[in-house]
């Protein structure tokens, strides 16, 4: 079984667990340091993924809901997992939360799955082999300029102090709770780009980033640098992803 097939099976199994809690008043806790909520569904999915994936592969482990073990830094390959990305949407009963699963080798993601069980959307990619949605090939949009581009981003990302000339580009902003889903929507061509300009946890974007790349898009940190994963602090300097013209237009205007 390939790593991608392993992730696909694991994502579907995660969906069965999470849907058992969805819209059923799951127990909720709030993490220390204003790190957001976590539900019993997050923890149940994390426990299953940790057990099943590590039983199948001798890889290291990095997950939002598991205490970090720095032994992963000595590993060639690592699972990078967000059991439920978009937990607030999950709590609210909205559909746009996801399971985000990736395998990175040598710091570069090689296989990735983003699954939205409440929406029946399964995105997948393997490096060099393209990206799919529910088994059908997907590609980024054909928008060829930044003017009028549609960009998935939280509202503060368009604040003037992020941009040259203290002026955000003339884009149309939209929002989804899950960063993994935002990336997948860009890969699908439904939006031209996405960006998050604050420090970004690896588990939020590892899977979606490969899906965008394999759909023909460009992905970088906010300084236009290649993103590498399994860092000592598993956080990157923001993320910008989109088709090539819009991606380049955005990063060129960022301070």
TrEMBL record:
InterPro entries: Inositol_monophosphatase-like (IPR000760), Inositol_monophosphatase_CS (IPR020550). The keyword Magnesium applies. It holds the Pfam family Inositol_P. It comes from Aliiroseovarius salicola. Keywords: Magnesium, Metal-binding. It comes from the Bacteria. This is 3'(2'),5'-bisphosphate nucleotidase CysQ. Belongs to the inositol monophosphatase superfamily. The keyword Transferase does not apply.
